[in-house]
Amino acid sequence: MILVISYPGEEHTDDVVARLERRGLDVLRIDLADFPGRTGLSCTWNSSEGTQVKISTPDGTFDLQDVRAAWWRRVRHPTVDPAITDPNAAAFVLSETNEAVDGMLDSLDCPWMNPRAADNAAHHKPLQWTVARQVGLAVPDTLVTTDPDHARRFIQRSSGCQTVFKAFIAIADAWRETRLVEASDLDHLESVRLAPVIFQDYVPGVDLRIIHVGEKFYTAELDARSTSYPVDMRMVIGEANVRSVTLPESVEERLLALQKRLGLVYGAIDMRRTETGEYVFLEVNPAGQWLFVESLTGLPISQAVADQLESMANGMNCSPYSKVTASAIGGSH
């Protein structure tokens, strides 16, 4: 059985699950928001029955000991019963549910795409940039700060270099595009005291969205240089010229080293290729989107994700780091 953890309507998950089911594979999909009300759990450790890890859903009861591979996609948090109105009681229920569900999932002896602890750690951009530099990838000069004076010095250190500021993570309810720092923004630098801000050298060039699956890379070039907003290609995908390209072998080797160090089996990597041909690493999203790349280029990414999960479930073609946890990220390389 292949365990898929994602919420209903997540279109990337829908596509891959449909492919797996058409192959006749047994797929169990759960939404963590269904715990503990719609989906219950019973885990036992005793001398007569051994270890049992069972969950009950509206579709039946399933033994997670049968899971041979798991996919940690985009997830939601458990839901507290609205009848619990006391905030302290609600916090206790949520804490207890998280402890039980997380422990249950971490107890499964199967390969993950991506391992949960590694996936969580790899979302942190400061870790990404540190590891990227360690494996030989070019990273733009970057500052993360709550110090207005440091921010001002970074922005003004070179008159010939533009600076962008960006969010750490895209939140649906507070989405922010990457923006160039304008002269008017300098009057508001005191606000960085309220929350850390990423400032980074702006790298002109062609965007690359690179989908990494297992040992393979699927790369799309998105040339947004002549669009209405070349600073952030996410804003102008419909205007950009898009085509599939092949990365230099040396860049793929460094990216694979990055992914292995981070413990990721899957990742959506963003880079820029400059006018001089330099490849500059911007970030990796462990749960990034790929369907827009697939639709614009025809690259068989959904098939590759399904193939990877099937191979992992069959014990074949598994990445040697499929069970890497966050504690191993800082190890030697």
Automatic annotation (TrEMBL):
It comes from the Bacteria. One of its GO terms (cellular component) is cytoplasm. The keyword Cell membrane does not apply. One of its GO terms (biological process) is SOS response. InterPro entries: ATP-grasp, MvdD-like_ATPgrasp. Residues 129-310 form the ATP-grasp domain. Keywords: ATP-binding, Ligase, Nucleotide-binding. One of its GO terms (molecular function) is metal ion binding. This is Glutathione synthase/RimK-type ligase-like ATP-grasp enzyme. It comes from Deinococcus soli (ex Cha et al. 2016). The lineage of its organism: Bacteria, Thermotogati, Deinococcota, Deinococci, Deinococcales.
